[in-house]
Amino acid sequence: MPNFVDADIERIAQAVALATHKAFVIDARVRFEVTMLSETPMTPDAFYQRFLVMLHAHGFVTVRVGKLIEIMPASDIP
């Protein structure tokens, strides 16, 4: 897993997509920067799980739409 310092969420999503072969669509309202560091290597699945936790902590969720995974504000989910 690459380390990120003050990285835009889109940059991290691109790295997760590359590692996991998942395709993301990011809602225009999903904007934040984050630092994500790991002292040890992570599996692609662990990287994805950490990404999901980070999104949730910032108020965002993922929703599968066909083969795509959309990232959106949690407030959009009824």
The gist of it:
The chain is an alpha+beta fold. It is built from two helices and five strands, in the order E-H-E-E-H-E-E. The chain has helices at 9-20, 44-57, and strands spanning 4-8, 23-26, 33-36, 60-65, 68-73.
| Tally of alpha and pi helices | 2
Order of helices and strands: EHEEHEE
Q: What is the makeup of the main sheet?
A: 3 strands, mixed
Q: Largest sheet, order of strands side by side?
A: 2-5-4
CATH fold assignment: Ribosomal Protein S8, Chain: A, domain 1
Can you give the mean pLDDT?
94
The domain count comes to 1
* CATH architecture designation: 2-Layer Sandwich
Ranges where pLDDT stays below 50 over 5 or more residues in a row are none
What's the CATH class label? Answer: Alpha Beta
Rg, Å, rounded:
12 Å
How would you portray this structure in words?
This protein has a single domain, classed as Ribosomal Protein S8, Chain: A, domain 1. Helices cover 33% and strands 32% of the residues. It has two helices and five strands. It has a three-stranded mixed sheet. Strands 1-3 form a two-stranded antiparallel sheet. A hairpin with a 2-residue loop joins strand 4 and strand 5. The protein is globular and about 40 Å long. The mean pLDDT is 94.
